[in-house]
User: Fold these one by one.
Assistant:
Number 1:
Amino acid sequence: MDARKAHKASSSSSPSSSSKRCEYQVFLSFRGEDTRKGFTGHLHAALSDAGIRAFLDDNELKRAEIIETQLMQAIDGSMISIIVFSKSYANSNWCLKELVKIMKCRERLGQQVMPLFYNVDASDVRKQTGSFAKAFEKHEAGICEGKHEKEKVQRWRNALTQAADLCGEDLKNADNG
């Protein structure tokens, strides 16, 4: 077997291979209280109706103590992540942790990322103004003097900027579907 075939055979069994990691076609990142029963619920139903396996946390998570692990594995195991940015998205530590992971998967694995701006300006996400500025005021007010916490908040800010710079869809004044 030549070197290219050997490399292909070994890489297809590695954990980062696309056949191994693509448990879901789409991972949906969203703020539950904003869009779960409206836009995101409709989006998930439409994807499912089209035969697309999409991860939606309320259907897939099994036990509270392993939620974070399951979320991170689901992100790793998806080909595409759709981020539904809404007014209170940045209020959620969970959403921001997901976003950092999504952007790492984009960089490391070439995962496609599509931002959707649901009744929020992309510039508010990119520059952390408006409701995003208010959310970060709360995050920063809750920070201990620890360097680790400050770096975490900076990673959240960077991930928001990177995601908002991607080509996405503006869904201003969108109703529940």
Note: The longest strand covers residues 78-85.
Number 2:
Amino acid sequence: MLAALNIVLYSWIYTSLKRKSILNTWVGAIVGAIPPLMGWAACSSLSDLGAWCLAALLYAWQFPHFNSLSHNIKTEYQKAGYVMTAFVNPKLNARVALRYSLLMFPICFGLSYWGVCDNYFSFDSSILNGWMAYMSFKFWLQQRHNYSKKIQAAGGPSAAEITIANAYAKKLFWCSIWQLPVVLVLAMLHKTGQWDGLYYHFFGYNKENDKLKEKFTNAM
């Protein structure tokens, strides 16, 4: 069902919206978020909120990634007839990238809260999320300046100000390239119970056995 939904979303709705509305980016982000749900559904229940946190992670990441990418090639999109936020509303383009960069923090906390990862993941992932949020903030701040009423009244941003915005967009794009795979690797390393077998092998320690012993002791 998820695969069929993704085919419809991508080949019909998303592709059609590219030439009609900036909403195509939001629909495209849903397309990118569904595959993790498909993997989860293959081995567990989608009633587990951890599955939706993982999908939300992929969904949110796509905005700082794509919005920064599209910024520097917005002219090509416009010439091709694709309606993208980067040229329709450049200020909104940067603001959306910042919003979803900040959303990465609670999503990663959710992965720990719902038991997908241990609590240390919240700390590790925050370093990477902080890096991307900072780059998003610099990009947004420059675009906010470039498209302020004062600058627009003066005839628009100067060549130097445009160059600075382009540079921040490029830095954010490369930041996003590294951020997601490293966060996912950290999620695997911090997966709940990932190292229990190793602890048991070296130290004779097993969390699940200890929980059962504690439960039995309390019952007695």
Note: DSSP finds eleven helices and no strands in the chain.
Number 3:
Amino acid sequence: MNQYVSDLDKGKALHFLFIKAESKTPGGLLARPVLTSYYKSEQFRKRPFDPYNVLTSPNAAILCPDSFQSMYTQMLCGLIMRHEVLRVGAVFASGLLRAIRFLQLNWDQLVHDIQTGTLNPKVTDPSIRECMSKILKPDPELATFIKTECSGENWERIIVRIWPNTKYLDVIVTGAMAQYIPTLDYYSGGLPKPCTMYASSECFFGLNLKPMSEPSDVSYTILPNMGYFEFLPHDDDSPVTLSRDSPPRLLDLADVELGKFYELIITTYSGLCRYRVGDILQVTGFHNSDPEFRFVRRKNVLLSIDSDKTDEAELQKAIENASELLKEFNTSVVEYTSFADTKSIPGHYVIYWELFMKDSSHSPTSEVLNKCCLAMEESLNSVYRQGRVADNSIGPLEIRVVKNGTFEELMDYAISRGASINQYKVPRCVNFAPIMELLDSRVVSSHFSPAAPHWTPERRI
């Protein structure tokens, strides 16, 4: 990055970093996200000084398991050191937007702390209180500035207004995170959003050698020494199924072809053998002879707000389970579709239902439909439920009931745009503006999950 942005060693990074809950396997092995493992390691806690990687957040705040105390402290430090901040970020774009929303909701308490030099009593972690006693001093001038910026209605360019020396946003905005780009541009005034690396918990894959390119143009050069990479040719019209009886031919890194799509298969030093990552990639070029890939999407994923991934089969099962609550009303779900609503922070799943009621005088009540929302959430995977319960990164699921005949109108619209009436299938996830407008114009009632779903860190991963 220093080849493209100068003087990154002359300031600090405001990165909102968090640990997540841990669990144990039935055999007693610790299971946790890779970043949680790293932040808790001695390599992070006792890392040597690096002028290019100085954080505003103290280790105590990053390692605090309480999300409110951690976010509050990291935001407070970022405000105190606002002139030293050269880049602002989080792991995912959704995480940075969650931090901005946190500032919107808590700026008055933060201003009080800066004004008085005292720490909010809600922050009870002893390690945080100890380190903040050395950082937090009364600063009435800064408190007045923050109050002036945050108390108004206009939050456009709030990032560069509060942190005026910010050179870029350090967040992932490819794949499902691309949906947050317009909101990030609004809050940052269009700051660059370099995507520097391509990695997962299983393996580090590659680097973006042109980090300042637009998110839609990002390609990653695979680092062949990070693992053994193989590629399964991918075609949406005729998906390949792996089986022992007739295994498909996997291609080596040197054999992929320009423009073609592949599913990534990895064998790692830590013991994964021919592991299907679930990412669909497209070859966009070559760096010398090393292929460069564009991340296209996660395979079979319909909905994603943060680190959650929900596919069609899981969504279908969740709807089937929720539909059980409708049987006593002689009501069933005729059709459905969905989308990930990221206009609010945090974002949430929206499910459109068209219902068939045999007896309109005995229709399901609003309370029952709210319970259907919760039943769906209880049926979704543990990553989703952790986002709802522990991380507060996902809002309550919403069901929007639409008028009868809505999905026929949806089909008519698709056919008018050239779809074949013989091959038309209801899309299980939508994001095309005209379709969204059609669906929303037919909504007769909206319902939200009345409580958080069950989730505990001891649950098996």
Note: The first strand starts at residue 12 and ends at 16.
Number 4:
Amino acid sequence: MSPADAPVIPGLEFVRPLGSGGYADVYLYEQQSPRMNVAVKVLKRQGLTTAIRRQFVDEANTMAQLADHPFIVQVFRSEQTADGGAYLVMKYYPPPNLAQRAKAERLTVEEVLRSGIQLASAVETAHRAGIVHRDIKPANVLVSQYGQPGLTDFGIAGRGGHAEDVDEDVGVSVPWSAPEVLYGQSNGDSRSDVYSLAATLWHLLVGRSPFEQPGGDNSAYALMPRIRATPVPTTGRADVPVSLERLLAHAMAKSPDARPQTALELARGLQAVEREQRLPSTSVVVLDEQGRTTSADTPSARPGGADEHDRTSVRALSVPSAPAPAHPPVGTVVDDDEDEPATISGGVVLGVLALLVAVTVGVVVWAVNRGDEEDLPTPAQSTLTRTAAPSRAVDYPEQPAIDARAAAGSVTFSWNYVGAEEGDFFRLRLAGSEGDVAGAEVVTVTDGARRTVKAGSGKTVCAQVSVSRKSGISSPFSAIRCESAG
């Protein structure tokens, strides 16, 4: 990028380049009245297609629709130039972004929890507006001078309209993308955004994406099989509580059905970890059914006080999505952002899904003061009520360990795990090869922690299993185990 490429914009004075991405450059300008710094995202001329120009316009419209949210980067205006170019004028967030910060320093558990809840608020708000982000990653989280995160880059967000007519490739960021998106089984939905947000939080704790191997092959095509079949690794940090490790693994489950189904559910899980660790509480901020921002505070109970139960939660609204169309196999690898692993495009069609938000109930907010000296913001009277909530983190089942034993004409799989509870049942995947397990049909097992599979002599059978509870929560799937029948 060159300063010469920066457009002349009335009322704005060019300062310096800020960075460059796949299809746009970003420059710092100074707005003259009122005087303030702004970031200007300028569409590149090289390789400009109708699809990219349309995507750029959609990004402006999407971010403008969500502009009032405190954790989504605000767009002030968008213009198309006479020569076919375009630019967005946005709120300026000084460097570093969260990807740069995670590379340079170790973020505390408290900061990651706080940022996770705030970002989940932004993602939940987008989902309620019928928008799926599809590219949540550390580089797309900016940080204000006051330390508040700002989610940006809605360039490939799904928001309905004409994207189904676009046949050009659109890249996805492999290290943080859900397996069903990478392998063309889904165009992306609220659950894939939950996966990407959890992968982002894992990255912030460790300094790299979950399936990167230090010193190993971390190309897109090396990462994809790990993302599809390898269990989510632990962070390896002694200060990360087990409850957070379990929550992140749960949110990055291979099957979309096994994850938290909404960003709000993930936020509530993160709030539960905050309470468990006696950390300052972080608010969930979402839109209510009238499109008004509702602050849902979750103050920690006073340790040792008469009221040990936190009493704040937000009830999720249902956001139905249309089924994703079938997609061809994955295509070519392309680069998207500087200083990041490769992204992939081709058969993964990131067309826009129309999401209809069926709002039949309001947001119900429960709040209680954290201490006698604190007064909480009071939401609208029509949305305020009180109830009790558990004061400990959600007890997600442990990831099971699976074993296999061959016999004549069969293979028997058995598994065990810590913390078994009455009523636990299991979700089993079976396939003829390791690579096919992640896409195999899930079989429910209710008669014990084993299953015998008939197979011809020498035939290989592979399996992995997850623990489920009556409450609807599930463990991450186990590692894949393969064995050949005798």
Note: Residues 109-128 form the longest helix (20 residues).
